[in-house]
Amino acid sequence: MDIERYIEELSQETGIDAEQQRQEPVSLTHRAVELWRSGERFFLVTDGADARAVVERGIGNRGEVWTYAEVEVVARIADQSVRDEVEHWKRITNGTCRSCTSTKAGTS
């Protein structure tokens, strides 16, 4: 998911300056935005509570629902093929994504 390219394309379609779009944050709290990518549906929500609400209402399963934090984690991955694989595994396992750090023995 290339957010910068998406914003640029959206600004061209709507006639709204991309910089203006970046400056006007929209709250997704208690909302789910349905999006499509490569023929696959997914939902963008604010947090885990909103993700649970989408699942409980039968709108989508957890593998289709992405929280802001999950998008942040996956967006840090430079390789698009790796991001695609993460998306694939999240979808088929109805999983969640979170940052995972590890430390080697003897380091902090």
How many beta-strand runs?
Answer: 3
Alpha-carbon distance between the two ends: 33 Å
Estimated structural class? alpha+beta
Gross morphology is: globular
Helical fraction equals 40-55%
Can you walk me through this structure?
There is one protein chain. The chain has a domain at 27-93. Strand 2, helix 3 and strand 3 form a beta-alpha-beta unit. The longest helix has 14 residues, at 80-93. The termini are far apart. It has 108 residues and is α+β, with helices and mostly antiparallel strands. The model has no long low-confidence stretch (mean pLDDT 82). It is built from 5 helices and 3 strands. The relative contact order is 0.12. The chain has a 3-stranded mixed beta sheet. It is globular.
Summarize the model shown.
With 108 residues, this protein is of the alpha+beta class. It has a domain at 27-93. It has five helices and three strands; from the N terminus they run ααββαβαα.
